[in-house]
């Protein structure tokens, strides 16, 4: 008589080390986007591992993930450092966002049952509420959530899979923009035009507003940074 197979236990499975790695990834990502780890700053593994209470192998796995996302970069002879946000970075991010956000926004506009636009309306309502509250941190989070919603509401599988990497770069670019401009009213009006175009569903207007919102904003920011750098001049 053959031995009867044991039933497979149901319920939670053993937690893999990856869970701890993901927690480290999340905390490092937060520190970078909050400016606690500054662009160009070198990561010192021993000190950070001790500070976070994790092993160096776990920290290295998290670092490799953030290098893949673009928030960290491997520098010759210097090790790993926070990605430098310069004019080229901002221009490259804007170029990719313009191309892909047009696809996402048009997909939301081409809404078969109204659910896609409903999601964008909710995110836009949250953005306006954050603006009215005058809370910079809440507004930043609502800003990212608004763009995240446009991408995910598109229901385009590839866009949804690409968003986490694009989000990391977009988050950095937006953080620099908010720091340099400190003009939430301008951001509100620019987004208002973009969201109106998406909800009204005109493809050509959507393309024009994405260009205005993303590429023009990036071009202005690049010029601001270049002007400041020229004004600083060579150090004595």
Automatic annotation (TrEMBL):
Family matches, as SMART domains: FCD, HTH_GNTR
Gene3D superfamilies listed in its UniProt record: GntR ligand-binding domain-like, Winged helix-like DNA-binding domain superfamily/Winged helix DNA-binding domain
Pfam families on file: FCD (PF07729), GntR (PF00392)
Spans annotated as Disordered: 1-21
CDD domains per the UniProt record, alphabetical: WHTH_GntR (cd07377)
Tagged with keyword tRNA processing: no
GO molecular function terms listed in the Swiss-Prot or TrEMBL record: DNA binding; DNA-binding transcription factor activity
Residues covered by the HTH gntR-type domain: 18-85
Keywords of the record: DNA-binding, Transcription, Transcription regulation
Protein name from the UniProt record: GntR family transcriptional regulator
Organismal lineage: Bacteria, Bacillati, Actinomycetota, Actinomycetes, Kitasatosporales
């Amino acid at each position: 008589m053959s031995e009867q197979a044991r039933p497979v236990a149901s319920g939670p499975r053993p937690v893999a080390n990856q869970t701890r790695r993901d927690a480290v990834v999340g905390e490092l990502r937060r520190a970078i986007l909050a400016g606690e780890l500054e662009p160009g700053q070198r990561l010192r593994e021993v000190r950070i591992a001790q500070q976070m209470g994790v092993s160096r192998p776990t920290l290295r796995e998290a670092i490799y993930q953030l290098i893949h996302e673009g928030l960290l970069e491997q520098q010759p002879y210097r090790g790993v450092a926070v990605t430098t946000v310069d004019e080229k970075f901002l221009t490259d991010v804007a170029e990719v966002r313009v191309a892909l956000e047009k696809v996402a926004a048009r997909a939301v506009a081409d809404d078969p049952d109204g659910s896609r636009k409903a999601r964008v309306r909710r995110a836009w309502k949250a953005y306006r509420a954050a603006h009215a509250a005058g809370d910079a941190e809440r507004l930043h989070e609502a800003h990212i959530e608004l763009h995240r919603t446009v991408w995910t509401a598109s229901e385009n599988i590839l866009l949804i899979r690409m968003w986490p990497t694009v989000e990391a770069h977009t988050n950095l670019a937006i953080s620099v923009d908010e720091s340099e401009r400190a003009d939430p009213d301008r951001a509100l009006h620019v987004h208002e035009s973009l969201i109106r175009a998406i909800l009204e569903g005109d493809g050509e207007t959507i393309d024009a507003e994405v260009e205005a919102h993303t590429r023009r904003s990036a071009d202005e920011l690049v010029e601001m940074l270049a002007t400041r750098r020229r004004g600083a001049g060579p150090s004595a």
